[in-house]
């Protein structure tokens, strides 16, 4: 078992290293605006990878992911702006605080199913971000809390773009989440989550503690969301209630389902969708001369349409559809290759 764990850790390290090289190469080739988009995609990915584990491996639904992001965002803002913590320590503390909130919710969620669980998490998404308005002296009210942007270290050079540095910070945070989740899903804890998801009674008979396993899924999901929220505060230099509305939780959930839950690649497609779709919808609204109210709600409407289409065509999301398409192409190539071998050209 220890040998398998070491093999899994090495495999996770290789995956993260390749992802880091790809991220760094893309960031070095694009401009400032694209660097900020990469930073946005990175903190969304950190949040989405936790939700993917919760839904795909834990079999639970959460419509309150934006609330966990708000917890992490305010934790980083308070620790950096008021307590002058180093950035790494603040992000780690934000992850831990969000995990604690997730443990409380997970203890209740392990006793709830279906629409009841969705209703509880939806209430959390509505209520929790508004706490900032209830404590304006500490949390800044509607204006929120502002932090100074982190300056690139001197060894990167005086001309190093600050937007690229923000992208690298967010990317490193996302890669840390990827490394942990990749290891977890291939460990005994991941197998226990899948067993509980498939059949709670059978899992309990095999020795799995169902309630504890489901609580662990919520803790992991909330921790990743808190890390994503903390990274968002670093990128945006701001934590405020308006940054974490109910719409954010719904968009994250819809994007996770469209990308493909239970898959790391699915979280990648979902993060790309969250970053690119607002720009696409803005272009559509401008080309059609839509009113301001319609243009503001157009992204959510597009998410709804895409979600319906994905459920009809690819129930497993984009990643499952691509896997299915790849299988079809492989079978077509194999059949053509076998025909060519059986009828060689004379």
Structural class based on helices, strands and sheet pairing:
mainly alpha
SS element count, helices: 15
Distance between the termini: 55 Å
Radius of gyration: 22 Å
Helix content: over 70%
Overall 3D geometry? globular
Features:
single chain; 346 residues; mainly alpha; two-stranded antiparallel sheet; 2 strands; 79% helix
Structure description:
This protein has 346 residues and is mainly alpha-helical. 79% of the residues lie in helices and 1% in strands. The protein has helices spanning 2-29, 32-57, 65-82, 87-109, 114-127, 131-134, 136-139, 162-185, 188-198, 200-205, 210-236, 246-259, 264-288, 292-313, 317-342; strands at 145-146, 238-239. Strands 1-2 form a two-stranded antiparallel sheet. Helix 2 packs across helix 13, helix 3 (65-82) crosses helix 11 and helix 9 crosses helix 11.
